[in-house]
């Protein structure tokens, strides 16, 4: 479940970057000024790792949760690259519990990051569509995430 949740974050992050590649020249407030220049073509994007995606995003600090991105990326890298050596190098009950706790923690964190990126993507969709009923059905499902995104932004801004 932890692996699936991490992969879901990568997928929605790629969706966000695809959206930004297409529209950010016009907005130019969501990502850094260099984003469009450094953006890969859409074919190369599929091969990007989450770390590269986060670096490419380089979101405006007023929009992003930079510290949370960094913490999540650190956890994700530990999970993907060092989980066995960190949590499964011995077969004690204590190690098993630590491994399970970590998987649960990264799963919950992944849910938050996924929701954040979905909310931001929905916000971008709203920017370009005057009639909310005409939003792509995929994005319509993300309206709840948008509401959570707005709530999170209000908490961060206050």
Description:
The protein has helices at residues 2-27, 35-38, 42-45, 50-57, 66-81, 83-87, 93-128, 137-140, 143-157. It is mainly α and 158 residues long. The protein has one domain. Helix 1 (2-27) runs parallel beside helix 7 (93-128). It is elongated and about 60 Å long.
Per-chain topology:
Elements: H1 2-27, H2 35-38, H3 42-45, H4 50-57, H5 66-81, H6 83-87, H7 93-128, H8 137-140, H9 143-157
Helix pairs in contact: 1-4, 1-7, 5-7, 7-9
How many separate domains make up the residues? 1
Can you give the mean pLDDT? 75
Query: Globular, elongated, flat, extended or rod-shaped: what is the shape?
Result: elongated
Order of helices and strands: HHHHHHHHH
What portion of the residues fall into strands of 2 or more residues?
A: under 5%
Structural class: mainly alpha
The largest pleated sheet is described as: none
Number of helices: 9
Head-to-tail CA distance between termini: 34 Å
- The beta-strand count equals 0
Tell me the Rg in angstroms: 17 Å
Any low-confidence stretches, pLDDT <50, length ≥5?
none
Q: Level of helix content?
A: over 70%
């Amino acid at each position: 479940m932890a692996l699936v949740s991490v992969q879901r974050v990568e997928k929605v992050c790629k969706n966000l970057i695809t959206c930004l590649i297409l529209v950010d020249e016009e907005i130019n407030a969501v990502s850094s000024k260099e984003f469009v220049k450094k953006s890969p073509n859409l074919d190369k994007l599929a091969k990007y790792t989450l770390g590269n995606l986060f670096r490419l995003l380089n979101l405006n600090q007023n929009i992003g949760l930079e510290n949370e991105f960094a913490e999540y990326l650190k956890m994700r890298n530990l999970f993907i690259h060092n989980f066995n050596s960190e949590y499964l190098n011995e077969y004690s009950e204590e190690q098993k519990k630590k491994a399970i706790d970590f998987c649960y923690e990264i799963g919950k964190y992944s849910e938050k990051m996924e929701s954040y990126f979905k909310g931001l993507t929905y916000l971008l969709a709203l920017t370009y569509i005057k009639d909310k009923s005409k939003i792509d059905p995929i994005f319509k499902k993300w309206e709840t995430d948008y509401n959570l995104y707005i709530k999170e932004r209000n908490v961060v801004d206050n």
